[in-house]
Amino acid sequence: MDVRVGDxxxxxxxxxxxxxxxxxxxxxxxxRLRCCGCGREVxxxxxxxxxxIRAIEREEKNGETD
Length: 66
What we know:
The chain is mainly beta. The chain has one helix at about 45-50, and strands at about 10, 20-25, 30-35, 40-45, 55. It has a 5-stranded antiparallel sheet with strand order 4-3-2-1-5, covered by helices on one side. Strand 3 and strand 4 (about 40-45) form a beta hairpin.
């Protein structure tokens, strides 16, 4: 799964604050995510978070090549 720092993830389950979108702060074996509703940060294993992702929202920069 192609998740990058700066992406916004839409999760299958909502956070207790009611938000379902999370900003990606760190990737690797673990993900660090920040809730877009209340600002809470959580860190956990990549495998757990990848199962919960419904969609990835990414702002494409002009002229970006990969």
